[in-house]
From TrEMBL, chain A:
Main location: membrane
SUPFAM superfamilies for the chain: MetI-like
Transmembrane segments: 55-84, 96-116, 136-154, 194-220, 240-260
Assembly notes: The complex is composed of two ATP-binding proteins (CysA), two transmembrane proteins (CysT and CysW) and a solute-binding protein (CysP).
The name this protein goes by in its record: Sulfate transport system permease protein CysW
Entry GO terms, CC: plasma membrane
Keywords tagged on the record: Cell inner membrane, Cell membrane, Membrane, Sulfate transport, Transmembrane, Transmembrane helix, Transport
UniProtKB/TrEMBL annotation, chain B:
Transmembrane segments: none
SUPFAM superfamilies: MOP-like, P-loop containing nucleoside triphosphate hydrolases
Ranges of residues in domain ABC transporter: 3-240
UniProt entry tagged with the keyword Methyltransferase: no
Cellular component GO terms held in the UniProt record: ATP-binding cassette (ABC) transporter complex
Organism of derivation: Billgrantia kenyensis
Gene that encodes it: cysA
Phylogenetic placement of the source organism: Bacteria, Pseudomonadati, Pseudomonadota, Gammaproteobacteria, Oceanospirillales
Annotated GO MF terms: ABC-type sulfate transporter activity; ATP binding; ATP hydrolysis activity
Keywords carried by this UniProt record: ATP-binding, Cell membrane, Membrane, Nucleotide-binding, Sulfate transport, Translocase, Transport
Protein name: Sulfate ABC transporter ATP-binding protein
Amino acid sequence: MQRIGDGPAVRRLLIAAAVVLAALFLLLPLVAIFAQAFARGFDVFWVNVTNQYTVAAIQLTLLIAVLTIPVCLVFGVALAWLVTRFRFPGRRILQTLIDIPFAVSPVVAGLVYLLLYGRTGWLGAWLDGHDIQLMFAWPGILLVTIFVTCPFVARELIPLMQAQGSREEEAAVTLGAPGWTIFRRITLPNIRWALLYGVILTNARAVGEFGAVSVVSGAIRGQTNTLPLHLEQLYQDYNTVGAFASASLLALIALLTLVAKASLEWRAARREVHS
Amino acid sequence: MSIRLHDIGKHFGRTQALEPISLDIAEGELVGLLGPSGSGKTTLLRIIAGLESADPAAGARILFGERDVTQLHVRDRRIGFVFQHYALFRHMTVFDNVAFGLTVMPRKSRPSSGEIRSRVHRLLEMVKLEHMAQRYPSQLSGGQQQRVSLARALALRPDVLLLDEPFGALDAKVRQELRRWLRHLHDELNFTSLFVTHDQEEALELSDRVVVMSNGRIEQIDTPDELYRRPVNRFVFEFLGDVNHLEGSVRNGVLTCGDARLAVDLADGSEELLLRPHEVELAEAPTNEAHLPVTVTAISPVGAEVRVELEADWLGEPWLAAISHASYERLGLSRGARLYALPHRWHRFPTECSERKARASEAVS
C-alpha cells in the first residue's frame, strides 16, 4: 500500500528541502550571532556583556518582561473568560478590538502613546502637573510593551475555550463549587498549556520589542535603554562585537524559552503516557 | 422532594423560548419532558436547575418542596444535573470526578477524606465502575461515561435529579440498558427526577408521567398510557408515533377520497382521519364499510410485527400498516401485491381541523 506521491525519491527530496531551508533561515543566523559575538575571543565578549550600560539594559528588559507577563496573563484570562463564557451586546466588537495591537504597527502604537501621555499630550499635561513622568522613562516602556503583547494570551485561550465549551464549568457549579474553585480546579487545568504558550509568546515579544519602545524610551544610555535599543545603538557606533554580544543574550533568552517550553511539553506527554 | 413551577417563561432576545408554564411534579416521581428540538424542554430543565434564569415576572416561582429556590443560585439549589455529553472533568480520574462535589464543600460541612473515599467507592459500586476508578474519562465508553456522570450527580444526595437528554448520544442497545438501570436506581433511591428527551419511546417507557412540549408550550401532561390512548390534540398524536392520514369529504356517512371509500359516523363536510399503523389491517377483499385499495411497496418483517408500506392513487403520502406475522403469512404478501386496507379504528381532532380550514379559507379570500 502506497499513497500517491509517497515514493522514496519524493520523501528524500522533501526532507532535504525542509532541512536546507531550516538550516539557511533558522540555524545559520543563530550560529552567526554567536560567531560574531565571540569573534574577538571570550574576553572581549565578557567585557562587552558586563559593560555597565549593557547590564543596565539587561536589567531594564527583564524588569519590563517581569512586569508585563502578569498583567497580560490576568488580562488575557479575564478577557478570554468574558468573551467565551458570556453573551452580551458588543462581544464581537470586543473580540475584534483584541486584535488592534496585532494590526497596527508598533511604531504607530508608540507614537499614539507619546501623543496621549507625552508632556504636551492630552493626558500628559495633567500627569506633568502631578509630577508623573511616563514618557522617556521605564513606565512608558512598560505601557507600550503591555499594549503590544496583550493579545497573545487571550488569542491563545479564546479558540481553545470556545472549543471546550462551558459544560464542565456548569457541571462543577451544579455540584456546588464556588467560582474561584471552578476556575482553579476546572478551567485552569484545561487551559494550562495554552496559557503557558501564551506566556512564552508574551515573554518573547516583551523582551524583543523594538518599534514601540524606541518611540517612547528616548534611548538614554544606562537609563531607558532596553536590550534591543542598546543593541541598535552599539551597531550604529560600529561596535559589532558589542552589538552581537547583546544579540547573543537575546538569542539566549529565546533559546531558554524554547527549552522551557519543550521540556514542559515533554513532561506533560510523559505524564499522559503514565496515566 | 416535589418540584412546583409557576409562570415560568423565557425569552432569548426577542424570541420566546418558553411561554409562561406551570407544572407540578410530585415527590419521588420520574417525569419525562418530551418534545421536538426547539420546543423549550431543555430550556425549562436548565431554568429548574438554575443554569438559566427565567424571565422576571411577578408570579414566577420555582419551589422544591416548601423551599422557594426562584432566586437561589445553582450551587445552592442542591440538584443533581446530568448533561447530554456527560461533561466529565477530562483532566480528573473517574474517582476524582465523582468525589468533586464532596471535596468542594465548605470545610466545616465537608466529610473527612476517608469518608469521601468510601462514599465514592459505594457510588462507583452502584454504577458498576469500581474497577475504573483510576481511569480518565477519555478511556471510557460513552455508556460508562454517562454512568460516571450519574454517580457524580448523585454524590451529594440531591433531592432533585435533572437529566438533559441523558441517553441521546448512546447507541440503541446501551441506551436500552441504561434506561432500565436508571428506572431501577430511581425506584431504589427515591429522588424526584425530571429528564429531557426527544425520543417518545424513551419517554413512554421510563416515565411515571410525560410532559409533551412544542413551541415553548406544554401540550399535554399525562401518564404514558393515557397519553398514548387519549392524546388531547393532533400534535401529541403525531409526535407519539407513526401516523397515517386519510383526507376526504363525508356525505351521508361515507368518506370518499378518489376511489377510496370508508363508512364513518360523521356529519357531512371535509374530514381528516388519523390512523396508527397497528390500527390498519390488510385483506384480500374490501368490506361494506371500507373500500381502500392499496399496493404493497415495501415489507419489513423484523420484530414482533410486520411493517408494510402501502401506496395508492388516492393517498398523498404512503401508509404504514403493522400486521401480525400470522396475517402476513396467511396473505402471502409480496411487493407489488394489491390489497385492501381495513381500518379498525381511527382518530380525528376536529377543532384543529376546522381551525385549519378557517385559516385556509382566509388565505383564499
